[in-house]
Design a protein that fits this description.
single chain, 218 residues, alpha+beta, four-stranded mixed beta sheet, 4 helices, 7 strands, 41% helix, elongated
Length: 218
Amino acid sequence: MELICTHCGTEVVSDEAAPRCPQCLRKSTLVSPAAATELEARHRLGNLWPAGDLCPLCGEREVGEEVFYLRLSKAALQLNATEKRWLAARSRCCAPCRRRVERVEIWRLVAGLSLLAGLLAPFALVLLLGAWDMRLTGETLAAAMLWLAAAILVPLVLFRRFHNRVRGLLEASWVVETLRGEVTMPSGIPIYDLVNIYAKHHGEEPPLDLATQTDPQA
């Protein structure tokens, strides 16, 4: 039976019913590796800003003076319309994660431009074929559709993967829990409940300030 001491981190292999840690001689702190991982994750989440001092984006480094912005959006489908509700917030992070958030903005711009290029590609193809006095063949149409799919999907998928990797811990942190408590889901059929991060605030209304919040119960 493999166990880990949560007090000193010693790995213990024993078949005894109540083994003792050979390093610190404790019995109650011996847990399975899976339980130790869960306890470590809970401890780390409890230390995330603003409840603690760790960066809410990486959970490894202490927060600095850098900030990032996040926006919680909820939408529901109703009989004759779609109702949307959202709330923006401002939170602190560490310097490396601030640079990662800035790269997210670049990927967002690239994905948007690629989407625009993909939508304009069929029209550009028709104009080029007309200018070159060529007919639209099956091969040309297949190539155009392949370009359209690649131009739209590939940058979008890469952006979402990088975006989700940067905001990894946010979904389980007090930052997002606070926003979810402030924004209720509209009545109707839920469509989405999303959290996006930004390097700058977009909107006229000031964001909820979590950059100075230190007590999650305040």
